[in-house]
Known about the structure:
Blueprint: H1 6-15, H2 23-34, H3 38-54, E1 56-57, E2 64-65, H4 71-74, E3 79-86, H5 89-96, E4 103-107, H6 126-132, E5 139-142, H7 148-161, E6 167-170, H8 186-194, E7 197-198, H9 199-203
Parallel strand pairs: 3-4, 3-5, 5-6
Antiparallel strand pairs: 1-2, 6-7
Helix pairs in contact: 1-2
Amino acid sequence: MNFSSKLLENAVAEFAKLPGVGQKTALRLVLHLLNQDKEEVQKFSGAISTLRNEIRFCEVCHNISDQQVCEICSSHKRDLSMICVVEDTRDVMAIENTSQYNGVYHVLGGLISPMDGVGPSDLQVDSLVERLKNDEVKEVIFALSATMEGDTTIFYLHKKLKQFNISISTIARGIAFGGELEYVDEITLGRSIATRVPYENSLSR
Length: 205
C-alpha cells in the first residue's frame, strides 16, 4: 500500500497491530480520526494513554479494575461462597451480561497451553488456592472455553483443588467444543451457568 505521508503510514501501521485489524481497516480508522476535531482526537488518545497507565487489577480476583478491589469483589450483594473461574476479563463481562450468576470470580489470565509455552506458573493458580483456604468458599465453578486448552486447565485445577471440602462444578456443555465464551450468546451461556454439573460427572461422559 502506497502512502502519501510517512506520518499516515506510521499511524496505519500502529492500528494494524490491533487484533483483527488489517491495513485497509487501519487506514479507514486513521482517516476517520483525521476528519475529527483535534479535541476529539486528543480525547481519544488521552483515554487510551490513561487506560494503559492507570488501570489496575483486582487484588482478590485479578479482574481489570479502577480500584485495588473491584466492584464485584467488594459488593455486599454478591455471594462470596461461589467462585467462578474464568480465563480473562472478557469472560467475566460475558457471564455478567447473562444476569444468571451472583457469585464472585477468579481470572486466571490465560489457559495452560504447552504449545504456546504457557504453564500453570504463568496463571493465577496459587492465589486461587489461597482463596479456598477461607472456609467461606463452598463452590468453585469452572467456566473455561470448550477447547483442548480449557479442558487441560480444568483437569489441572481439579487436581489442585480436590483437597478442599468444596463442590467443584463446570458449566454445562451447551457450548460447542472449540467455542470460546466471549462469542457465545447470552441465553446459551446463562443456561450453561444455571445448569452447571459436578466436574466428576463431566469426566465420565
